[in-house]
Amino acid sequence: MRNILNLLVTLIVFWVGNQYFNEYLSVADVKTLVIASVLMFAIRFLFSLAMALSVMLIVVGVGCLTTPALILASIVLTPIKLWLLDKYLSGFEIHGFWTYVLLTIVLSIFTVKVKSKQDK
Are 24 and 32 a contacting pair, CB within 8 Å? Predict the structure, then answer.
């Protein structure tokens, strides 16, 4: 359920950006909007799998090297995903450095997190 909500939040953020801030973020059509959101979701999902695998590999000793690298990569993962979409998805354009920064912040704020039982 959390993954579907995150996918919908990404879709809404891109749609709002295209509708109200189209000089900074432009999406050609609905198909491109959906593809961009699904690609952001897929990259996030693959990164989650890589992080889980890396943590499991700590037992073997290899995870001690990969886990810190993945944690550092997570800091810049959203801007990298946005840059890849801008570069390789035709019809999806981001204009300006500060647009990347703002989109990264907005997507980070509106990402749905799961509460643990300790937080209740």
Answer: no
Using alpha carbons only, what angle is made at residue 114 by residues 110 and 116, rounded to the nearest 5 degrees? 140
At 19, list the tokens: 């509708």
pLDDT per position as a tens digit, 2-20: 778 888 989 999 999 999 9
What span, in angstroms and rounded, lies between the C-alpha atoms of 11 and 34? 7
- Paired strand residues for 92: 27
Distance of CA 104 to the CA centre of its chain: 8
Cα separation of 20 and 49, whole Å? 35
From the CB of residue 110, how many other CB atoms can be counted at a distance below 10 Å?
Answer: 13
0.85 surpassed by pTM = no
